[in-house]
Design goal:
One of its GO terms (biological process) is protein transport. This protein has nine helices and ten strands. By secondary structure, the protein is α+β, with helices and mostly antiparallel strands. Strands 6, 7, 8, 9 and 10 form a five-stranded mixed β-sheet that branches. The chain has a three-stranded mixed β-sheet with strand order 2-3-5.
């Protein structure tokens, strides 16, 4: 799958040392196309549980739900998807038919952009595809902790959390600059720890810098609806676990794999 190769190229660029600078670009205001949104989402691997034929594991929705059809689990962690398969194996007991079904299950990585594309294609259908995202519990807890620190009263977080580093609550997002071509990117992290790493680097110079908690639904809606020029610089940064997995995939254009460097002001 070509998207897997793109992961290997993209993530070696943004998955290395992240050093922030001030984003100052004079770009024309252009709305992002559906293809551009998909390509941004393609940098994030998500994990499905599939059988040997590549069909994802799903469960039927209750008849009371108008959408009909079935729902497929989408894991943000490959390890958690593998753990769920082990749970199923343990729960299959002595039922030979069930044991044979569970035995064939495997974890399959796909780009998040593929999920987005499928949702867009079926959104107006009576039995549209439904995906239930399984966020990493550690990231959910981290998001809720940050929200509470900011004074918000939250009891739960019902989406995949995204972490963005800002110069201050009143200012813009902290970008990174790639050593390869001086391109400026604005990273949105799927890991609080990665966002904290960038925040630690910029805090000495920008004492009011903080981490804003958003969610993947909000990111996608912003990419769809807004015409702000900085959105072209947005890049989603997968977790360390996913970056390590991506590094095991065949890569093209390995010469592009260069660390980020600080931006001169």
């Amino acid at each position: 799958m070509k998207s897997l190769v793109r992961w290997g190229t993209t993530l070696t660029l943004v998955g290395s040392t992240l050093l922030g600078g001030v984003f100052a670009g004079n770009l024309p205001v252009l709305a992002l196309s559906e293809q551009q949104i998909k390509e941004k989402l393609d940098s994030v691997p998500v994990y499905l549980i599939t059988n040997q034929q590549g069909l994802p594991l799903s469960r039927p929705l209750p008849e009371s739900q108008k959408q009909g059809g079935s729902v497929t689990g989408v894991y943000m962690s490959r390890q958690e998807a593998q753990s769920f398969i082990k749970e199923l194996q343990g729960a299959s007991g002595k039922d030979p038919k069930m044991k044979e079904i569970v035995k064939s299950l495997q974890v399959t990585a796909v780009p998040l952009g593929v999920i987005y594309e499928q949702l867009q294609e079926t959104k107006n259908q009576s039995e549209r595809l439904i995906f239930a995202f399984k966020p990493v519990e550690q990231e959910i807890n981290g998001a809720m902790e940050l929200l509470r620190q900011s004074g918000q009263q939250v009891k739960q977080f019902n989406s995949v959390p995204i972490f963005a580093v800002r110069f201050s609550p009143e200012q813009g997002y902290v970008p990174i600059q790639l050593a390869s071509d001086k391109e400026q990117l604005i990273p949105l992290f799927l890991s609080k720890q990665d966002a904290q790493g960038l925040l630690t680097q910029v805090k000495p110079k920008f004492p009011k810098a903080d981490i804003q908690v958003i969610d993947i639904d909000g990111v996608i809606k912003t990419l769809q609806d807004k015409n702000d020029p900085w959105l072209e610089q947005v890049v989603l940064v997968p977790s360390q676990e996913s970056r390590e997995y991506i590094q095991t995939l065949p890569r093209q254009n390995s010469n592009n794999s260069q660390p980020a460097r600080p931006q001169k002001r």
